[in-house]
From TrEMBL:
<dbReference type="InterPro" id="IPR051046">
    <property type="entry name" value="MurCDEF_CellWall_CoF430Synth"/>
</dbReference>
<dbReference type="Pfam" id="PF08245">
    <property type="entry name" value="Mur_ligase_M"/>
</dbReference>
<keyword id="KW-0547">Nucleotide-binding</keyword>
<feature type="domain" description="Mur ligase C-terminal">
    <location>
        <begin position="272"/>
        <end position="398"/>
    </location>
</feature>
<dbReference type="InterPro" id="IPR004101">
    <property type="entry name" value="Mur_ligase_C"/>
</dbReference>
<feature type="domain" description="Mur ligase central">
    <location>
        <begin position="105"/>
        <end position="248"/>
    </location>
</feature>
<keyword id="KW-0436">Ligase</keyword>
<dbReference type="InterPro" id="IPR013221">
    <property type="entry name" value="Mur_ligase_cen"/>
</dbReference>
<dbReference type="GO" id="GO:0005524">
    <property type="term" value="F:ATP binding"/>
</dbReference>
<feature type="domain" description="Mur ligase central">
    <location>
        <begin position="31"/>
        <end position="76"/>
    </location>
</feature>
<keyword id="KW-0067">ATP-binding</keyword>
<dbReference type="Pfam" id="PF02875">
    <property type="entry name" value="Mur_ligase_C"/>
</dbReference>
<dbReference type="InterPro" id="IPR036615">
    <property type="entry name" value="Mur_ligase_C_dom_sf"/>
</dbReference>
<dbReference type="InterPro" id="IPR036565">
    <property type="entry name" value="Mur-like_cat_sf"/>
</dbReference>
<dbReference type="GO" id="GO:0016881">
    <property type="term" value="F:acid-amino acid ligase activity"/>
</dbReference>
<protein>
    <recommendedName>
        <fullName>UDP-N-acetylmuramoyl-tripeptide--D-alanyl-D-alanine ligase</fullName>
    </recommendedName>
</protein>
Length: 423
């Protein structure tokens, strides 16, 4: 009965969303890729909001139900039928009566299984499609025949976009860039390599009192070079989204200076996405607990490697889910890299035992490796383990591992947990 109810609700909300798009005709930016979708969506929103009335999808609303909810501007009802019926009513109000509706929608579109993106893209028909990056072994791959099939599913967004729309591609990812040749669309590229239309360079860490507090880089376009500072977050995980946002803005005639100012002053990173949080004993937490995949962990570890600190570098890594037959090998590879980057590995979960194997295989001292069954046990142990100057990366798959529970136990101000952590 619940399944029938859910299917009916999803169908009704989808029809309402389509009617709203037909009535108000907003411009639509749709973001997909293997990593960085939510941060990219949020950053594009910040840049476009400096010039237009914009709405973005909340959190990671990127599914067959999340996208209609974002278009209608209503919340997820969960298991509460009253909220779902209220959502339907509010959708009808939008359709029947004139409303001050956004000029732009910035939406995230994901694929958990075959057909997910095609189902949405057929009726969404975005004006701008943004492709972030394709992972060698992407999340949710266990539900597809192969990693290539995941990529083919994500490309459906381009297939169904407006013919006169703009395609925004990551120049540095050759699989993404090849889409330019496959589809005849106006294209703007972004990346850190020479040849990108919007190019990032000179990326450095920002330090205050010998503690890392953010990143700085230059955005370059047609001979113009503008500095961009992002405080409170780290890594190329935030540089690439910024460059993609500049590419979107450029396609709409916005100038680099105003976009940089908007990003430096108005952008706030989402919880659990390479977010810097003050830790106990004057330590620094890099909270990347929102979710995990092999590519995302590698990016995070490479960021940690480059940080200057007086203390230890500690990786608290939970299981990576939905990798299917690639599970053991991918965890081992992460262990290999961790041994090269960190002084201490704290592995959490059953699958992370393979991470330990990889770390030991690459020469990490077993005395510097700990294993816990769940994130609560790991967090409780770390209360008496963290020392001054430590830099602590926390990452793992979202719902299975709940790695934010580690962060909550070692953050300097746990009373701010609801504000700063994934919820």
């Amino acid at each position: 009965m619940k399944k029938i109810f859910k299917k009916a609700i999803v169908y009704i909300l989808m029809l309402e969303a389509r009617a709203v798009l037909w009535k108000y005709k907003p411009k639509i930016v749709a973001v997909t890729g293997s990593v960085g979708k939510t941060t990219t969506k949020d950053t594009i929103y910040t840049v476009l909001s400096s010039a237009f009335f914009v709405r973005k999808s909340e959190k990671s609303f990127n599914s067959e139900i999340g996208v209609p909810l974002s278009i209608l501007g209503v919340q997820n009802g969960g298991n509460n039928p009253v909220i779902w019926f209220k959502n339907i009513f509010e959708g009808l109000v939008l359709i029947l009566f004139k409303n001050h509706y956004p000029m732009w929608l910035v939406l995230e579109v994901g694929a958990d299984k075959p057909g997910d993106i095609e189902y949405i893209a057929k009726w969404l028909k975005p004006d701008i499609a943004v492709i972030t990056r394709f992972a060698e072994i992407p999340a949710h791959v266990e539900y597809f025949e192969s990693p290539k099939d995941v990529i083919e599913e994500k490309k459906k967004l381009v297939e169904y976009m407006q013919k006169d729309g703009f395609l925004i591609l990551n120049f540095d990812d050759k699989q993404v860039f090849e889409i330019k040749e496959e589809y005849n669309r106006k294209t703007v590229t972004y990346g850190m390599e020479d040849g990108a239309d919007i190019k990032g360079s000179n990326n450095l860490f920002l330090y205050e009192d010998k503690k890392v507090v953010g990143i700085t880089f230059k955005a370059n376009q047609n001979g113009t070079s503008i500095p961009v500072n992002i405080k409170g977050s780290l890594g190329v995980q935030h540089i690439y989204p910024a460059l993609s946002a500049f590419a979107v803005g450029f396609s709409q005639g916005l100038n680099l200076v105003s976009m940089s100012q908007a990003l430096s002053s108005d952008h706030k990173s989402q919880p659990g996405r390479m977010k810097l949080i003050d830790g106990i004993n004057n330590s620094t937490i890099i909270d990347d607990s929102y979710n995990s995949s092999p590519l995302a962990v590698r990016w995070a570890l490479r960021t940690v490697k480059e940080i200057e600190t007086s203390g230890r570098k500690i990786a608290v890594l939970g299981d990576m889910m939905e990798l299917g037959k690639y599970t053991s090998d991918e965890h081992k590879k992460i262990g290999n890299l961790t041994a090269d980057v960190c002084d201490v590995l704290i592995a959490v979960g059953l699958r992370s035992k393979s991470t330990i194997e990889g770390a030991v295989e690459s020469g990490m001292n077993e005395k510097n490796i700990l294993h816990f069954e769940d994130s609560v046990l790991a967090g409780e142990y770390m209360k008496n383990f963290v020392k001054e100057g430590d830099v602590i990366l926390v990452k793992g798959s979202r719902w299975a591992m709940r790695m934010e529970r580690v962060v909550e136990r070692i953050m300097e101000h746990p009373e701010k947990a609801d504000e700063l952590l994934v919820r």
